[in-house]
């Protein structure tokens, strides 16, 4: 009887150990795919580790977009600091100067953000939460300002057509 209890306890302990090990491996694998949001000011103040993947958000600086042999160069700003960005690939259709975007990638040794993915907002009323928060901290964006610009014009009297 005692042997049976000991075997059951050993089996439960082994199962818990394997389950814990599997959970640890999953968390370790996911740690490389997690990308935290960073603003241009945080990069300028050296709060970001190089060679670490993260998301950089801000507004595309007007006049900074340059296309060169399949590579696009532009700058992102939070209206306090600017970060140069280099991206090789197709940009979203909604990408334009003055647009709020989020780029995912890593900071290169030369200080240029090497983007592997560029995401643009989908309409005038939307601002990625991370970008909106960074612009609020910079004192540039007030809640509701972008949405007011996107309101449809007043309809004629007589209702919908």
Overview of the molecule:
The protein is an alpha+beta fold and 161 residues long. The chain has two domains: 1-29; 36-148, Nucleic acid-binding proteins (OB fold (Dihydrolipoamide Acetyltransferase, E2P), Beta Barrel). Helices cover 30% and strands 27% of the residues. It is built from four helices and seven strands, in the order αβαββββββαα. It has helices spanning 2-31, 40-44, 129-137, 145-149; strands spanning 36-38, 54-60, 66-68, 71-77, 82-88, 100-107, 113-120. It has a five-stranded mixed barrel with strand order 2-4-5-7-6. Helix 2 links the parallel strand 1 and strand 2 (54-60).
Keywords:
161 residues, alpha+beta, OB fold (Dihydrolipoamide Acetyltransferase, E2P), 2 domains, five-stranded mixed barrel, 4 helices, disordered C terminus
Count, helices: 4
CATH superfamily of the largest domain: Nucleic acid-binding proteins
Q: Oligomeric state of the chains?
A: single chain
**Secondary structure category:** alpha+beta
Taking the sheet with the most strands, its summary is: 5 strands, mixed, barrel
Point out poorly predicted stretches: 145-161
State which percent range the strand residues make up: 25-35%
Q: What portion of residues is helical?
A: 25-40%
SSE ordering: HEHEEEEEEHH
Q: What is the domain total for the residues?
A: 2
Q: What's the helix and strand layout?
A:
Elements lengths: L1 H30 L4 E3 L1 H5 L9 E7 L5 E3 L2 E7 L4 E7 L11 E8 L5 E8 L8 H9 L7 H5 L12
Parallel strand pairs: 1-2, 5-7
Antiparallel strand pairs: 2-4, 2-6, 3-4, 4-5, 6-7
What's a concise summary of this model?
The protein is of the alpha+beta class and 161 residues long. It folds into 2 domains: 1-29; 36-148, Nucleic acid-binding proteins (OB fold (Dihydrolipoamide Acetyltransferase, E2P), Beta Barrel), CATH 2.40.50. The protein contains 4 helices and 7 strands, in the order αβαββββββαα.
